[in-house]
Write a structure and sequence with these properties.
disordered N terminus; Cytochrome Bc1 Complex, Chain D, domain 2; two-stranded antiparallel ribbon; elongated; mainly alpha
């Protein structure tokens, strides 16, 4: 018994037991733990690498090689870490980026990239940090919305968007040379992404502020509104009753002034 007790208390026994336990735990972890391979499949990883190469030659001069941004010198660009794939798809697919020239606001133009290149750039920027993903078609397709949902979309649009974009989405001027662009002809995808990411001076309406259903209702309202014919004749760009009333006032006043001049001239001749 003394011999066995002495063997149990030997310092080497504790070390051997600890090593054995670590070996067992390592074997169990290797057998049961999930694979350490990235969740992205090979095609996605390849897409990210293609986007990295495109970013280096097309975007890095303003936004930094790793999307860290650039705030010094004459060419400046904000950091892109965390903006998400949706912001990149919106800016690149609409031709706003890369900018043709420095200015208060990036303008819409033909995109310099194909759809595949745009998605590759979006995938690379998304890999830099978490951000809004490109929405699924079901998120922005207004098909199947009821009249009540479209009416609710109109209320949401007038409450949150009409102050800048006009009640009909015709756009409007903003301070410092900026403007709210017209929403006529804008795709449903880009309407959704604009609300989701808040490009340029536009506020961000995240899915916590305006839910996916809210955004879809707004898109449905704009689609139906822009499909309606102008039953009042000349729409004057859809700028609303103020502009139409101004033109009516000017035309009416002009007619009255001309009429008064004609009466005065006729009276002078009669004398």
């Amino acid at each position: 018994m003394r011999f066995l007790t002495a063997r149990r208390r030997h310092p080497a026994a504790k070390a051997l037991v600890l090593v054995f336990a670590l070996l067992v735990m390592g074997a169990l972890y290797s057998a049961l733990a999930p694979s350490s391979k990235s969740a992205a499949d090979t095609s996605t990883s390849q897409q990210v690498e293609e986007g990295r190469a495109l970013f280096a030659v097309s975007c890095a001069s303003c936004h930094g090689l790793n999307g860290e941004g650039q705030t010094e010198g004459t060419i400046q660009g904000p950091p892109l870490i965390g903006v998400g794939a949706a912001a990149v798809e919106f800016q690149v697919a609409t031709g706003r980026m890369p900018m043709a020239r420095p200015g208060p606001q990036a303008e819409v133009k033909a995109s310099e990239f194909t759809e595949e290149e745009t998605l590759a750039l979006a995938a690379y920027v998304a890999s830099l940090g978490p951000g809004p993903a490109i929405p699924e078609p079901a998120d922005y397709d207004p098909a199947g919305l009821s009249e009540e949902e479209i009416a609710r979309g109109g209320e949401l649009f007038r409450t949150n968007c009409s102050a800048c974009h006009n009640f009909e989405g015709a756009g409007g001027a903003l301070p410092n040379g900026k403007y709210a662009p017209s929403l006529f002809g804008v795709s449903n995808l880009h309407l959704f992404e604009a609300m989701l990411t808040g490009p340029q001076q536009m506020p961000v309406f995240s899915n916590g502020v305006l839910t996916v259903d809210d955004k879809r209702a707004i898109i449905g309202y704009l689609n139906e509104l822009h499909e309606q014919p102008s039953r009042g004749g000349l729409a004057l760009g859809g700028l609303g009753p103020v502009s139409e009333g101004l033109w009516a006032w000017l035309a009416g006043l002009g007619v009255l002034v001309l009429f008064a001049i004609w009466i005065a001239a006729k009276g002078v001749r009669a004398r």
